[in-house]
Amino acid sequence: MKQNVLTRYRVMAYVTAVWLLVFTVAIIAKYVFKVGDTMLISQVHGVLFIVYVIFAFDLGSKAKWPFGKLLWVLAAGCIPFASFFVEPKVSREAQALVDKTAPAPAKA
């Protein structure tokens, strides 16, 4: 597995998590305090989440995760704050696979 697969996943996990928090705050502001609109925020988060799902599937297929683990990682993208806890664990496991498949440095 290549490092860029893991990097894409990590970036999208954090970006999606931040936008989910922004969306959550916007929903609370809209329905509790009766201020603001969530249309633009929800659309941006929706597009980012689709990209996150694609990159998570890519990482999961290359890491040969069981389907249950993939669902667990995808569910973390739907729960506010969950990605901030799941992403480091997933990244450590995937980094071990990246390091294992990396070619050995050439000797001079």
Model description:
This protein is an all-alpha fold. The chain has four helices and no strands. The chain has helices spanning 3-31, 39-63, 67-76, 82-101. Helix 1 packs antiparallel against helix 2 (39-63). The longest helix has 29 residues, at 3-31. The radius of gyration is 17 Å and the shape is elongated.
Q: What is the strand and helix layout of this fold?
A:
Layout (H helix, E strand, L loop, with lengths): L2 H29 L7 H25 L3 H10 L5 H20 L7
Keywords:
108 residues; mainly alpha; elongated
Question: How much strand?
Answer: under 5%
Main beta sheet strand tally, sense and closure: none
**C-alpha termini separation:** 26 Å
Rg, Å, rounded: 17 Å
Based on DSSP secondary structure assignment, what is the total number of beta strands? Answer: 0
Low-confidence stretches: none
Number of helices: 4
How would you state the average pLDDT, rounded?
A: 89
| Coarse structural class | mainly alpha
Helix/strand order, N-terminal first: HHHH
Q: Share of helix among residues?
A: over 70%
Q: So what's the overall shape?
A: elongated
